[in-house]
Amino acid sequence: MGPTPAVVPGTSDGGATMHRYLTRAAVVALGGAIAVATTGCGTPGNRGPTPATSAPAADGSAGLGSAPPAGSTAQPGPTGSPAGQAGQPGGGNPGAGNPGGGSSGGGNPGGTKEKKPAGPTIVYYRIKQKPQCDQGTNVNRVPGLPVILEWKVTGADRVTISVDGPGVYDSYPAVGTATINFPCGDGQPGGYVQHTYQLRTVGGGEVRSKTVTASALVHEIPQV
């Protein structure tokens, strides 16, 4: 801006010159004010990026494994729990099921023998030899075979044997055999004849008995 010409009082254009001077000064002052306002109060969109400041994490876990921000004077937060720490077990109570009510086996304890019934016992009573009827001819006759019985009895004094019904045929010891003739005269040739033999205990308690039956084929005897 050039120097303002001096105004001589009393000249005819002195008032107009002063008016222009004041107007120009006001414009310059207003322009300076607008420039200052524009520089100090720029809109947010025109501002430069604001440097980010990081505050320490509230729980202290964000700072693990990384350097603290430059210029930060905050003390590091408390160390967080280690990653993957095992959770506490649940507080549920264990199931309250009752044990099964199965009964154990009822076997006798070792070394205890089963009690035997009182009185005589017929261990066995059987036919030792099967009988046979006579055969051959009237001239050359072949005699038949008798029946042989055998038995074993415990708890008795002796035994008796009856043949074909009531009545004692003979008495014998508690263990033994008996050879008894086997008649075939009542049978028909080609048929079978049979006889029954009953054994009974004597003494030692309640009487025990058992019966066996023997049979044999009746042969025809030719007359020559």
Q: What would you note in describing this structure?
A:
- The protein is an alpha+beta fold and 224 residues long.
- The protein has a domain at 121-217: Immunoglobulin-like (Sandwich).
- It is built from 1 helix and 9 strands; from the N terminus they run αβββββββββ.
- It has one helix spanning 14-40, and strands spanning 121-129, 135-136, 141-142, 147-154, 158-163, 170-172, 175-180, 192-202, 209-217.
- The strands form 3 sheets. The chain has a 4-stranded antiparallel sheet, with no helix packed on it. A 3-stranded antiparallel sheet has the order 1-4-7, with no helix packed on it.
- A hairpin with a 6-residue loop joins strand 8 (192-202) and strand 9 (209-217).
Mean pLDDT: 72
Quaternary arrangement of the chains shown? single chain
Tell me roughly what share of residues is in helical segments: 10-25%
**In the CATH hierarchy, what is the architecture of the domain at 121-217 at level 2?**
Sandwich
Strand content: 25-35%
CATH class of the domain at 121-217: Mainly Beta
- Amino-to-carboxy terminus distance: 191 Å
Order of helices and strands: HEEEEEEEEE
CATH topology type of the domain at 121-217? Immunoglobulin-like
In short, what is this structure?
With 224 residues, the chain is α+β, with helices and mostly antiparallel strands. The protein has 1 helix and 9 strands.
Task: Name its key features.
disordered N terminus; four-stranded antiparallel beta sheet; three-stranded antiparallel beta sheet; alpha+beta; Immunoglobulin-like; 224 residues; elongated
